[in-house]
């Protein structure tokens, strides 16, 4: 097949047959977020490249090698550099600033949609993937940190996802981090010959990122490095202790992982990650943390904030693994109409039924066809009932109602004739009947 007819590498279609679990996840999350008083926020997928560089940080995998960046050309393109969002926080914060929404106000907001990262595609890792992103802006915590983690734990329960493990850490204040960064720099400089090229580059830029390295050859060196939680400022230490105490009280199990620094530069104090062992090396399903300095750094007034993002594809896979079923897409009723008058009447009848029974799924036979062809379509649609309208029935003011399948796999019941006047009631009775 020609290349034009293939999806772009690392990008995936979600087919109607798979969409049920996506919708279940999206609806469950939207309802849950509403129940914690979070409002949906929609921001563009394109932003100025500089926004991501400043927000995420130059010495991160995302900015160094994963961004889809291009020059805005064309009729009124101004030659500026634009980037498809690799994550949502930067755009959300930009939107709060450019819409003048900060000014001491507090916002609990969320967004969902595609993110783009130019990384090596593999199972659970795509170049266009989706996140649900939650942000609480203007809250210093730790209460909101705790609530966010409880919210995520509740979401796993609602989705029937088991076996996720929570790791937490504290990165302290920027000042404490600066001191710690000096310590790390000393430590890794003393072992510079053992570092790989990426880590050597990060040594002067952001040595904390070396702790994030997945290179097996570096793990021993990393394990022996100074630990940030032992160098926290007193306030961050208290903040972290309050978080741990509350998680204990709520019965949410966690592990303190002093190596958890998260890939993005903007974090401070609380960071956390939910991981699974069920997806191979793509083990992170939800990660986030506090970013108290980011908003000021981007030009807004100093505002504490915390947020997290979950990976929709990975969660959908976990839902599938747990045997979750999605609401079936099959119609309740397939309307078979034969003859000119019946076909004309059929569309109106379907509209009437949709008025009478809200939520009823009616598929009308479109494009004509003889009885046999229409019944074949009715059968393939997965509908439970066929409603049959012919010119002859129409004249007598009746329609045929034929069960197409029974719940116990036995033979469906016989077709019956019902007055058109009572059709909605007959449908209600037939659909409620036990034998479906
Ligand atoms: P990873 O360690 O897997 O690269 P990350 O630390 O880069 O993850 P974040 O930037 O924290 O990920 O994004 C939040 C979530 O988005 C991740 O926990 C993961 O579930 C999901 N995610 C990140 N990158 C991808 C991707 N390329 N494809 C699919 N999901 C992804
Ligand atoms: Mg990554």
Structure explained in plain terms:
- Helix 1 packs antiparallel against helix 5.
- The model has no long low-confidence stretch (mean pLDDT 91).
- The strands form 3 sheets. An 8-stranded mixed sheet has the order 1-5-6-11-10-9-7-8. A 5-stranded mixed sheet has the order 13-12-14-15-16, with helices on both faces.
- Helices cover 37% and strands 20% of the residues.
- The protein is α+β, with helices and mostly antiparallel strands and 436 residues long.
- Helix 12 links the parallel strand 12 and strand 13.
- The longest helix has 17 residues.
- Magnesium ion binds next to loops.
Percentage beta strand: 15-25%
Main sheet, how many strands, which sense, barrel? 8 strands, mixed
Which class best fits the helix and strand makeup?
A: alpha+beta
Oligomer description: single chain
Question: How confident is the prediction overall: mean pLDDT?
Answer: 91
Strand order of the largest sheet: 1-5-6-11-10-9-7-8
Small-molecule binders = adenosine-5'-triphosphate, magnesium ion
How many strands appear in the DSSP assignment? Answer: 16
Q: For the CA atoms, what is the radius of gyration?
A: 28 Å
The number of helices is: 15
What would the principal axes of the Cα set say about the shape? elongated
Q: Tell me the distance between the termini.
A: 44 Å
Instruction: State the helicity in percent bands.
Output: 25-40%
The low-confidence parts are none
